[in-house]
Every structure is written in C-alpha cells, then in structure tokens.
# Entry
Amino acid sequence: MPLLAAALVFAAVVVLVIGLWWARLPARHVSDRLRKVGQTVSGIDTDLFTSPADALAALRAQGRLRHTLGRLVEQAGYAGRETDALVLVAVFVAGGALVGWLRLGALWMPVTALALGGVPIVFLLYKRSQRFQKFQQQFPDALDMMTRAIRAGNALSMAIQLVGDEMPSPTGTEFKRVAEESRLGMDPGEALMRLQTRVATEDVAFFCAAVQIQRGAGGNLAEILDRLSEVIRERFKLLSHARVLSAQHRMTAVCVGLSPLAFALFFEVMRPGYFEPLLSSPLAPLLLGAGLGLEAIGFFVIWRIATIKV
# Structure
C-alpha cells in the first residue's frame, strides 16, 4: 500500500509539472519570437535602452546554470528551450529520489536522484558531440560552395544564403540562421560570432577569424576559403585516422566503466538478495562510494589517454 501511494503521488507531480509546462508553451513561443526580433531589428542593440540595475537584475534572474544549460540545448540541436530541459531533469531527479527511497532507503535518495538526473544532461552532451562531428564532416563542402559562389560574383551574404539553402542539417540550418540574422539587420560579424558560439569547434573559429580579418584588412576571400577548406579536410582525415587507432582504448574505457554494473545486475537477477549482506552493512556507503569513485577515475583516465586532438 505505501508503494502504491508513493507511485500515485509521483505520477500526480509529473502530470502537474507537464501540464503547467504545456499550458505556458504558446505564450513562451510568442515571447521568444518577439525577443529575437527585438534583439536584431534594424541592427539596434536593445541593451542600450535598459538601465544597469535592470541588466543586473536580469542577469541574476537568468542564472549561470540556466545559461549553461541553454547553450548546451542550443548546441545539441534540441527543438525546445532550456526550461523544457530543466523540467525533464527535475522529473528524472524526482524519479531517482523515489526509486532510491523505495528500494534502497532514504540514505541513497541523493545518489539515485543525481544519477538519474544526469541522464538528460548526458544525452544532450552525446547529441552535441554527434552534431558537431556531422557539422565537421559537412563544413569543407560548405566552404567549397561558398568559394564557388564568391568566384561567380556573389557577395558573402549570398554565399551564406546559398549554403543554408543547399546544404543538409546541421550545416544548412546554422548558415540559414546566420543569413536570416543578417537580413534582419544584425552585423555579419556578430552573426558569425553567434555561429561560433552555437558550433564551438576549431574549424568554425578559423572560418570566423578568416572572414573577420578579410573584412578588416581586405584580400581575396575566395582564395582564403579555398585554402581553409583544404586544411580542414586534411585535418579531418588525420583526426579520423587517429580515432581508428585509439578505438581499442576507448572501448576498454567503456568496458571498465560498464562491466561492474553489468555483472552486479546479472548477479542480482540470477540470485536475488545476493548483495543484501553488503547493503545492510554499515560500511556499505563507504565501500560503494569508493568503488564507484575508482571506477569513474579509471574510465576518465583511459578515455583521456585515448582522446587525440589534432
């Protein structure tokens, strides 16, 4: 009976949170569109019309955690806002706390809550990594397309618009956003800096720096982009070769991190109550914490050794 009551309370809380989020969704979409237009219309910086006290209050209200999570959501290509991700994290934290309280006791509630609460963050990090890798594969072709467009007599803005229309996602989506921001009045340099924030890779940083230098000092932009495309393509080939050579070490890190959990689950399924003497011991939190900590250290050390930067 207590288990059923706890499950019903948890389900009610989840439904309430999702209902409130769903009710506020249309209003947030309208406010987001108005905010984006207000920031970019006519190239006017709307921050100039706010007092320092209002700016400081807005900065405090936003919070560093929400800003970091919002940037992660944007870089991962997630369609929602950082508020949606926060709601999802809160639901996972509540579920982890409930599972820890019902299965392991109140002492394990923070551990299980943090473990399950980190699942959405890990998923966003994985999606960001996959998106950045796909962008790096498509980026040399995008630079070649821009080079041909500039040599044909088009301006840089038209070349960016062409890439946004012709290239697949995520490259086409990001360049189309740059073109739309420039069309709304934003300075092209600021639009490129926002692109560098959304796609935080070295290749995009090289591209933005090359364009900024060419805009300030002049030069043959088509030749610059052509050479940059060749350098990025050769760098990507070398990086792919390095990843192949280090694949065994990365799989070793994954096995080191997952094998204890997999064997523990196997023993518990094959013989229920196998870990009961350990969990009932007063030293259980210390032993399990030390084991998990050493496992995490081993995983990150091996993964760091296998990570090669080019």
Remarks:
- The chain has three domains: 2-26+51-130, 138-229, 246-306.
- Residues 1-9, 36-51, 57-61 have pLDDT under 50 and may be disordered.
- Residues 246-306 form one domain.
- The CA atoms of residues 253 and 301 lie 8 Å apart.
